[in-house]
Amino acid sequence: MSRLLKVENLSVHFPTTRGVVRAVEELSLAIEAGETLALVGESGSGKSTAALAIMGLIDEAAARIPSGSVHFEGSDLRRLSPQALRQVRGRRIGMIFQDPMMALNPVFTVGWQIAEPLRQHLGLSARAARERAIELLHRVGIPAPARRVDQYPHNLSGGMRQRVMIATALACRPSLLIADEPTTALDVTVQAQVLDLINGLKAETGMAVLLITHDLGVVWETAQRAVVIYAGRRVEEGKVADIFGRPAHPYTRGLLEAAKWESQAGGMLREIPGTVPSLLEVPAGCRFAPRCAYALDRCTAAIPPLTRLAPAHAAACLRVHELAQ
Amino acid sequence: MNAPLLEARDLVKHFPAGGGLFGPRRVVHALSGVSFSVERGETLAVVGESGCGKTTLAHCLTGLTAPTAGSLRLRGEEVGELLAREPAKFRRGVQIVFQDPYASLNPRRTVARTIGDALRLHDICPRSERRQRSAELLGRVGLSREHLDRYPHELSGGQRQRVAIARALAVGPQLVICDEPVSALDVSIRAQIVNLLRRLQGALGVAYVFISHDLALVRHISNRVAVMYLGQIVEVGATETVVGQLLHPYSRALFASTPEIGRAGAPAGARRITGEVPSPLEPPSGCRFRTRCPFAAPRCEREEPALRAVAGRDVRCHFAEDIAAGSLVASR
Known about the structure:
Distance between the termini of chain B: 51 Å
Order of helices and strands of chain B: EEEHEEHHEHHHHEHEHEEHHHEEH
Distance between the termini of chain A: 33 Å
Strand order of the largest sheet of chain A: 6-7-8-3-9-10-12-11
Largest sheet of chain A: 8 strands, mixed
Shape of chain A: globular
Oligomer: heterodimer
Low-confidence stretches of chain B: none
Mean pLDDT of chain B: 91
Largest sheet of chain B: 8 strands, mixed
Structural class of chain A: alpha/beta
Helix content of chain A: 25-40%
Radius of gyration of chain B: 21 Å
Number of helices of chain A: 12
């Protein structure tokens, strides 16, 4: 397997009147060709900001990116010209978002939107692009694609729109699909269909997927590896089987218990106390320390380094070896 | 008097839909004959996807919308009559907590004012005691006196939901409708709110109708569960019985589609389904689930199945016995 995407030390800061919001701090991750990596976090954890920064979609008038490199298929995306970056986006990297109604243009037909990247990036003629669009609609499981191709987004249900967005993202056969909460707005029976579709397309085309989600059930069913972030910082990474089988960071543990609705004696659920900190006033040291049942004084003294537990499993917790027992 | 706390019989709710001035008049069949009861101090979970009618049901139960037909009784009294005669008395009995506490709290009112209004409107305590009473209520939901003078935007999502719960409890209701109360919250906060609701139930004996799409949560929190599809209850019974062996093909599909950590693929006997929920403007003839059902047979198109007792619960499927016996083969 070859390394497809390598993000190193990526930070994204938003200066505001009330101070600097440190949305992403020193994030590193790598994706091999053909694998699904989940970037897991709650709202405000910085996961979507990280994805936008990876794709070069952060408005640098509003944000600062003080550090970081993004290597993809041999080039550093952070150093590419806007034109060259556009050639990568849409052609080599496809993107889908939570809300297809926001991502699809309401005044163009579905067919036009799928055909656009084909004409832009691959230079297909209008007729050939339309043929290809019908084929893609069929591929993503839309019934009667020859009729649907001339319809507008508002004619389609939520699940259908998400399928159209997937068709658009995959039109140029990208090697990486970035999916930001692709099923959060969908009902569970439709979510299952869309996840099955993404998994099927991945198996067929060999593309890699960066899946951004807060839903650990979705991670379990679709990803091979995961990076868990909390308040902008990576707290754990590893194979999904390892993270879910032996979660090393207390935050990951808490999340897993919450996601499984695991009850203790007496029928109560185990809670993570407190709330996610404001990114304007992040706690010193380990950002999870104020909510952590295992925190010691030294946890707030310095940011805990990533400690390896296994060749592919690491967590940013000072007590990771103790807690593993 | 042994009437259940709340009893719904054949609730029907139709909404007129669009069509404009000259277009055909169409009807949204939001609820089509929903019956159930809630006993004092228990939790009934209502599960289903969007379009199944669960939110319309919540609005009917809280008197926010009047059912088109059917009967709804609170402690044996018809809700329509009670609302006409003594609306305040009804509202003291039944309160609601919505999914999104940011939308359900007035952004221009402090917490003290939000809770104080509930106390004032229902004349729960003299004006001089309202602040003290509000502080006590905040204490009940795990907040403190210092939150009294905060505005919703100064609170986190979990804290806002606590305020919404305190407001609902302010009038001393016997029934609280919880409409997806944790699905808008961060994963790490959800357990806090669920535990809070359970603790309050233990202390106050309040009953919940808990609307959710999360079967794992429902299993944890409810005594009984009703699964809804396109305006009808398709399966209802004691949670242990129902979740222990789901009989309706839709309940099974819902369960199979919900990602569950530690499970490889769909559970045995259950399978994912194709398609999406049909429009409630034109529900399918016969069984409403037949267009997506792996077991659909010609009879399902002709004949609407009734809700009937099979294996300890009520289920709306012609073939429930065969499914229970595991002797049915999928037709698609």
